[in-house]
Structure formats: structure tokens, C-alpha cells
Amino acid sequence: MSDVFDVVILGGGSGGYACALRASQLGLKVALVEKDKLGGTCLHRGCIPTKALLHAGEVAHTVKHSAEFGINSTLTGVDMTAVNTYKDGVVGRLYKGLQGLVKHRGVTYIEGAGKLVAADTVEVNGQQIKGKHVVLATGSYSRTLPGLEIDGEKIITSEHALNLTSVPTKSIILGGGVIGVEFAGAWNSLGSDVTIIEGLSRLIPADDEDMSKGLEKAFRRLGIKFNVGVRFKSVEKTATGVKVILEDGKEFDADILLVAVGRGPSSRGMGYEEVGVAYAGEHIAVDQFCRTNLPNVFAVGDLIPGPQLAHVGFQEGILVAEKIAGLNPRPIDYAGVPRVTYCDPEVASMGLTEVQAAEKYGKDNIATFKYDLAGNGKTQILKSAGLIKLIREKNGPVVGIHMVGARAGEMIAEAQLIYNWEAMPEDVAPLLHAHPTVSEAMGEAHLALAGKPLHVHD
Ligand SMILES: Cc1cc2nc3c(=O)[nH]c(=O)nc-3n(C[C@H](O)[C@H](O)[C@H](O)COP(=O)(O)OP(=O)(O)OC[C@H]3O[C@@H](n4cnc5c(N)ncnc54)[C@H](O)[C@@H]3O)c2cc1C
């Protein structure tokens, strides 16, 4: 290809394609190189298929528990082939839409595995694609632990877990982070006897401690088992499945072991080192505009340090496109990134945990309030439970919003406005929330933190 592009993007996942769409919208000439499928992890192996699986689980749960609402029904079985057809249908429709969008925006889409061979050149299918700017967006892969070999059958990662043709009767999930607890929720609802093994002292250890407590309480009620605070030692394959052994000698048997111990950046073997791109550990090091040490080379998404979330990748892609186009974009405030875990109950949070807020402002300079969702009508109607926890700087804005409960994921939209606009509880308290909604609990929590609780004993 003899043309020189304004931007050559390596990797067509959330970060890469968002950059391509915004750059072409700004009139830049864009090439997007992708070795697998446009849409990357989020669309094909992450956000979308996992949420479809979780929704299928919710439907099974609703049918199983319908008598609690006076509706008699019987769950006669889970047809995983049909569940996969439903899930793949959702992915397929979005994939088609995305392909159309990229084509419509005039992006030159190149299929093939690319390699950075110079600061302005990506080589793909034996061709040199030249760009005034290059954006690295090659994403991440599922990590494992030393000595823990993934065979794709009995010992699997989330990629394999999305394509099972039957529900494992008994399953072990190694890792109680976001991906681990989401699969635990889905498989439990679909009928598996699930045990989570987490080496740290609680599930979702990156979240505020009260969220872990709320989730653990809900998981106990659902019959999801978990063993926390002891690390994995080894796994043996048995005639029927796997035996997992922990460092304290405890053993667990199951049909299948899902390894969900996090994701590492796909940063090696693509010429980055050879061309002189600087690293921050395994990630690519960047400044606040996602620029690497090489002035015309940028990097976005899971490849760089920071939260591994699709919406972070989207925003970084947009930021880079606007920077390249000569606009003046605002750097991303990573504390202002909404985080949602989509098991049932959902967990959603913004800003600082209580520990982080105490570290930043001093223990005596923060105030917290926990609103128990037992007092929320809609949560009662849904037969759910949970809490909203607010953290404010004393006489200052809300610096942390943490929720566990049904539909918490949808309420994050309001939480992120409150946090990012640095609202005081007194600013939110007079805003009306529709009754009966789960979101009115957000209003109640702010009323209470502003010193005028309504449906709360004071
Ligand atoms: C099970 C699971 C569930 C998730 N759920 C959520 C969620 O609910 N919400 C959320 O926000 N995030 C979620 N994520 C995270 C989200 O998927 C990632 O943060 C996001 O996909 C990162 O985007 P990216 O562009 O950096 O990388 P990717 O989406 O991984 O895209 C990288 C692309 O680069 C391509 N590529 C790699 N090397 C080359 C090469 N040499 N040449 C050409 N192409 C190459 C790959 O094929 C891939 O398509 C989930 C992830 C997983 C695994």
C-alpha cells in the first residue's frame, strides 16, 4: 500500500475501533488492522456475551423462583446450545452493525496480524502500511498461574467458558474478581454447584469492603460457595474432572476449573520492543494523552496501565483521535470511571472507597452513610437486597458512591454525574427521584448525608 495514512491503528477492539471512528469523523485518513474480528474482546469474548449469559441465568432464576411471586412454573431444563444461539445472535447483530459503521466512516480495514516495524510503519500480510501516527491497541489475554496449564476442556479461561455446550454440574472458579463472580452468578443460576477460590480475604477485593460483604451475603443465600484468604497451590486432573488443592491443604473437586485470575496486556511479539517503545512493567507506558515515548506512537485500552474496561478503551481511543487531529481534548480522570460487576445482585461504584478516601482526606475529614435497600420499595418488589454507601469529604463533595443491589448497574449513570460534577449531598438532596424506583434510594442516601433523612431512622 503506497498511501500514507494519518493514523494506522493496530487492533480493532474497543480502544482501536473507537479511535478509528472518531479519527475518520474528524477527517483523518485511517487504516485499522485486525487479525481476528472487529470488536475485539468486549464484543466477542467479554462484555456482551457474558452479559447475555448472565441474562439467560436470570431468566432461569426467575422461572425457578416464580412461585415466590405467586406464579407457578417449572424449569424443565437449560439448553446450552439454545443459550449460545441467543448469545451469539446478540453478538452477531452488534458485529454486523459495527462492520457497517466502520465501512460507512471510510476507514480502510485490513485483515491480518500486524507488526510494528518502525515508528511510522505497521507490517501486515507482507505489506508495509505507513502512518503519520500509529496507535497500538492490541488488548489483553487471560492470565494463568505458574504450573496451571489451560487445556481448554477441564481447565479453562473465560474464552472457553463462553462456549460450553452443557452446564458443568460442579465447577470451581479460581479468582473472585469481576470476571470470576460474574461467571459464578451465571453458572449458579443455570444450575451448577459453584465454588469460588479467592486468595485475598474477600470477594471483589478491589471494591469497597461493604460491597464485598453485601455480595458475599447474597451469594451465600444463592448457594454460591466461596473460600477466601487462602491461595491456590495446585490442580490435578482426575477421571471425572479436576481436584484443586490450596496452600492450607484443603481440596476441592469439580468437573471443571475456570481460571479467572486477571488479564495481562498483549504487548509482546509485535515489534514494540524492537522499535523502542517504552514499557511500564508488561504494559506500554503512556502520558496523559496516551502518547508513548515515541512522539507519533500512541497506545490505548488494556495495553496500557489503568482500568481494563471497554468504556475506558472507547474514551482513550477518542482522546487519541482528537489529539492527533489537533483538538484540545481533556485528559481522562481515571477516578471518574464507572465500574460495574453484573452478577445478581449487581455491584457498581464511582470514585474512592472508604479506605482510599480516608487516606486522601484523613479519617476525620470524611463522612459516610449507608442506606439499606431493605427500605426501598422497588427492591422489596424485586425480592432483592443490598445497600448504597456514600462517602463525602466533610463539608465537601461526594467522593465515593458504592452500590450493591438489583439494578445498581443502571444507577451508575446518576452516580457518575454526581461524582464527576463534584456535587455536594446538599445539591442532590432536593432533586426528585421517581417513586417507586431503585434509584430513589440514591435520593434517600443523599438526603440522609445532607442531614435530612426521610425513610431512615435517625
Ligand atoms: C469475560 C470478560 C468480560 C468483560 N466484561 C466487561 C464489561 O462488562 N464491561 C467492560 O467495560 N469491560 C469488560 N471487559 C473488558 C473489556 O472487554 C476490555 O477492557 C476491552 O475489550 C479492551 O479493549 P482493547 O481495545 O484494549 O482490547 P481488545 O478488545 O482485546 O482488542 C484488541 C484487538 O487487537 C487485536 N490484535 C491483537 N494483536 C494484533 C495484531 N498483532 N495484529 C492485529 N490485530 C491484533 C485482537 O484480535 C483484538 O481484536 C470484559 C473482559 C472479559 C475478558
UniProtKB/TrEMBL annotation:
Its cofactor is FAD. It is found in: Cytoplasm. One of its GO terms (molecular function) is dihydrolipoyl dehydrogenase (NADH) activity. The keyword NAD applies. The keyword Cytoplasm applies. Residues 5-317 form the FAD/NAD(P)-binding domain. Its main location: cytoplasm. GO terms for cellular component: cytoplasm. Keywords: Cytoplasm, Disulfide bond, FAD, Flavoprotein, NAD, Oxidoreductase, Redox-active center. One of its GO terms (biological process) is 2-oxoglutarate metabolic process. SUPFAM superfamilies: FAD/NAD(P)-binding domain, FAD/NAD-linked reductases, dimerisation (C-terminal) domain. Transmembrane segments: none annotated. Residues 337-445 form the Pyridine nucleotide-disulphide oxidoreductase dimerisation domain. Belongs to the class-I pyridine nucleotide-disulfide oxidoreductase family. This is Unannotated protein. It comes from freshwater metagenome.
